[in-house]
């Protein structure tokens, strides 16, 4: 027999109440794609790419009005779902806070992507390719001599990047997703200057997000990159495409080739 409206409402209320009384219910799930499990799994994968080594970098996921965040200063590849912080996006209060741990210093930067871009996931990497490309741009070593933006065009992988984190999963001609950049578009990623403390980057990152509505990422000079997407899949594939493009440009630079 189908569940009545009252049954469904009661079940939802019970779930809501159990979250209120038992914060651990927010991170307990057998589903590998539950944010608490997914963040731990992604960090293990990203560690092998050199994106989150030495406690640097991280991943955050928004699930409805809950923001899932890793602890600060821990080995990101060793994290367990029970280590996760959960923040209520509307009140910005923590609804789950593991004792003896601090929330990631990247939290205000992740929140900027959720607030200003309606992102569903934000990835911060300390990839050496990201760092190197900021140094090459700083030295004015590409044709455009633009210090505060990495620009590249006419490389197939650009088609893996959405315009401003929008884009749909529909595939257009040529294997490109609708809403993504095309082969002849120029992809531009702004670069902000690093600060002594991660959270002090927030103002500059918010400004860059506002000034570059088509960008799905912000590079941080001598530090790494923040990449977001409407969901985990888009944030992850964009982080992969960007890292590919950063590495390619660094290698092209070493060969004396121009990429713009
Ligand atoms: C060597 S990591 C320095 C801090 C940092 O840049 C970072 O991305 C990690 O911050 P968290 O607070 O999440 O550990
Ligand atoms: Zn960092």
UniProtKB/TrEMBL annotation:
A cellular-component GO term for this protein: cytoplasm
Keyword Amino-acid biosynthesis appears in the UniProt entry: yes
Pfam families, A to Z: Aldolase_II (PF00596)
Cofactor binding: number and manner: Binds 1 zinc ion per subunit.
Pathway in which the depicted protein is active: Amino-acid biosynthesis; L-methionine biosynthesis via salvage pathway; L-methionine from S-methyl-5-thio-alpha-D-ribose 1-phosphate: step 2/6
Localization terms from the record: Cytoplasm
GO biological process: L-methionine salvage from methylthioadenosine
Region (Disordered): 1-31
Subcellular location, principal: cytoplasm
Cofactor: Zn(2+)
Active site: residue positions: 156 (proton donor/acceptor)
Catalytic activity: 5-(methylsulfanyl)-D-ribulose 1-phosphate = 5-methylsulfanyl-2,3-dioxopentyl phosphate + H2O
Listed InterPro entries: Aldolase_II/adducin_N, Aldolase_II/adducin_N_sf, MethylthioRu-1-P_deHdtase_MtnB, Salvage_MtnB_euk
Sites where the protein binds substrate: 106
Record's keyword terms, sorted: Amino-acid biosynthesis, Cytoplasm, Lyase, Metal-binding, Methionine biosynthesis, Zinc
One Gene Ontology molecular-function label: methylthioribulose 1-phosphate dehydratase activity
Residue numbers binding Zn(2+): 124, 126, 223
Entry EC no(s): 4.2.1.109
Domain Class II aldolase/adducin N-terminal: 37-250
Function text: Catalyzes the dehydration of methylthioribulose-1-phosphate (MTRu-1-P) into 2,3-diketo-5-methylthiopentyl-1-phosphate (DK-MTP-1-P).
HAMAP family found in the cross-reference section: Salvage_MtnB_euk (MF_03116)
Protein family according to the UniProt entry: Belongs to the aldolase class II family. MtnB subfamily.
Protein name: Methylthioribulose-1-phosphate dehydratase
Species this chain originates from: Friedmanniomyces endolithicus
């Amino acid at each position: 027999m189908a569940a009545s409206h009252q049954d469904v409402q009661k079940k939802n209320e019970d779930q809501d109440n159990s979250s209120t009384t038992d914060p651990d219910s927010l991170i307990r799930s057998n589903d590998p794609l539950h944010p608490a499990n997914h963040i731990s799994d992604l960090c293990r994968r990203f560690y092998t790419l050199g994106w989150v080594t030495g406690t640097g970098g991280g991943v955050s996921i928004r699930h409805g009005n809950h923001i899932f965040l890793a602890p600060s200063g821990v080995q990101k590849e060793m994290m367990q779902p029970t280590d996760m912080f959960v923040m209520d996006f509307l009140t910005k209060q923590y609804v789950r806070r593991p004792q003896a741990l601090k929330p990631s210093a990247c939290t205000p930067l992740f929140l900027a992507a959720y607030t200003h871009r309606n992102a569903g996931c934000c990835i911060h990497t300390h990839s050496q390719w990201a760092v190197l490309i900021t140094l090459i741009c700083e030295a004015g070593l590409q044709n455009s001599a633009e210090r505060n933006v990495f620009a590249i065009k006419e490389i197939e992988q650009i088609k893996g990047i959405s315009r401003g984190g929008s884009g749909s999963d529909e595939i257009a001609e040529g294997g490109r997703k609708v809403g993504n950049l095309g082969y002849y578009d120029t992809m531009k990623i702004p670069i902000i200057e690093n600060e002594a403390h991660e959270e002090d980057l927030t103002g500059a990152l918010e400004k860059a997000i506002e000034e570059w509505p088509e960008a799905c990422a912000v590079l941080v000079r001598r530090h790494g990159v923040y990449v977001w997407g409407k969901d985990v899949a888009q944030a992850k594939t964009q982080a992969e495409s960007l890292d590919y493009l950063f590495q390619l440009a660094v290698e092209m630079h070493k060969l004396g080739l121009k990429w713009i």
